[in-house]
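Q: Can someone sanity-check these two? First one:
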Amino acid sequence: MSIKSLKYCNRCVMPETTEGLEFDENGICTACTSSEQKMHINWKERREILESLIDEAKKNAKENDSPYDCIVPISGGKDSTYQLHVLVNVFKLRVLAVTFSHNWYSKIGFYNLVNCLEEFNVDHIQFTPNRKSVGVAARKSLQAIGDACWHCHSGVGSFPLHIAVKFKIPLLIWGESIAETSGRASHFNPVLKFDRDYFLKVSAKISVDDFSSNPEERRMFQLFEPPTMEECIEQEVHGIHIGDFIFWDEEKQLEFIKNEYGWIEDRVEGAYKGYKSVECIMPGVHDFTNYLKRGYGRATSQASMDVRQGLIGREEAAMIAQEFDQIEPAALQYFLNITGYSEEEFYNSMKELRKPQVSNSEIPVRQIVDSKKSSPKLPFVIEFINSIRKATKENDTRNN
């Protein structure tokens, strides 16, 4: 393994610095244990439980004269596309799709989002925070939680809850179970309650009040705070993951949505697979900060998942992790531009945020000199605006 001071799972390549991860007496991590448990679950019984929950949601929606049976939070990524397939085309639910936009959508990610809306013919509500507030949040986020993405961690949980409360739609349905890759749960010891407190503690990690430096910032970030517990209880808001009820096979599902619905992969920085977080230009920065403070990145997680599925061995997984985790993402320059940090300030901040297990270790970083790989990254909407302006200017010049 690349960082000698770390303890790693004896089966995959996940290190001890993984949030919530534990090792059993054999040195096997929670995620690997959960992967074994998955093979001993009666998925037919689990599906029947899901069917009863769906039947109840349909019944309640009709009794309350609600136009929607449930809310499905979506990004347009592989999981939310597949969950729309299951819920709309298999179980025939009438869903309200809800998107929190990080305002960092990639071109392919934007296509995947609007494509799935068209394919599944669902109503859709989206909240996009303004670019200035995203920049302010990104700068504060680095010190507050150790990565660039507090606004996204907070928004993906809080905004669907706001819609659930305001439109009185109590059931929210997500896709992949957190038992698939997270150390925070296993299939035999699941998280049973996905409510306001769960998203505040696990996803956002810090409240809007604690994140904001003054009343104006508090107003700026107000929608990133979930509804009150009283509001959620009054509307009986609750959530489930369909991955806790049907066998989840992301490789098989990926091929399915590509063939059936035209979903598209793309290169994702810091990853060796082109499907996780493809909707965003910034996952490479998020995963790179994780690497700098915990000693592992996205490639480690993906390679470990492949080990559990029997696709590769542990030695190959370690080589993959080392090859990809160490690369400084091209999107880091965009992050520095919008936050005002210098490169030196960024790296100094990350060094201060290192976990104790890697505080004195060398964490190697490689920069890619290939111009195609290191070209500046911008959100698709900015590129789109710039391209239209350029084309209009060129057209005006020709006409004159």
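And here is the second, same format, sequence then tokens:
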Amino acid sequence: MIDETVEEIREMRTHSSSIVAVKATRALRDLVDREFATVDEFERDLEHNAGALRRANPSHASLHNAMREVVRSVVGRADTVESAQKILESTVDRVVDDVETGKRQAAEQLAATFDDDETFLTHDYSSTVLEAIEEVVGPDTSLTAYVTEARPRYLGRKTARELAALNGIQPHLMVDSAAGEFLPEVDRVIVGMDCIVDRTLYNRVGTFPLVATANQVDVPVTVVGSGAKIIVDGFRFENEIRSGSEVMLEPVEGIEIENPAYDATPVELIDSVITDEGRREF
């Protein structure tokens, strides 16, 4: 399961960074059922596999934190393999619960900020944003959502499809470059976050030009995510450069294709950051 999870994370088959952290943490439970001659052998295997999962996407702060917490909580804590495996099992449950609770509470905090007839624009796919919307919508709401398709992987299409299945909200799907055309019609922009490091928001590519344009036309920007994604130290963001085939299937001689997965937005351009602990100020 660990090798399969590494490959899944590397290929970005799971889009939410929180869900990635949960899947990676649960994958380490495989080590509970393996046989080890010594505690040292078990701990080396744990560190190796946690490192492999973390390196599968070094841009995910929540993944980095989860793997670091599992290793910190298990290594050096037991005298026998059996007791070390029991500690790993309980640690996996705790870390998964922490990630899921932070995500859920951040969604609840965001849900409390919606008006019943609000019009907003969102980019890419954020499971936290979607969870908040699911909590808000109902017979008495009339929300309108403008959704960018989020090229080149079109993750915004997934967002629009999930919104279309809900009552009380009307989604509009548009190409990324049309955002400026519709920004004057919305009350705010709402996006998730991969992480915030050194007063910089790292999120799916296309976030920075969207936020910068929103600032230009005086549309407020709300960012939401677990507070664990706001990193003070111990993490260096590494952008992922995706395959050029995602942009152009047929290679053309003389063209170098640029396909970064994320971009950087100064927090000074963001009006509010909402986490599981409430609104954060920068």
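A (reply): Looked at the second one. The chain has two domains: 2-106, 112-280. The first strand starts at residue 119 and ends at 122.
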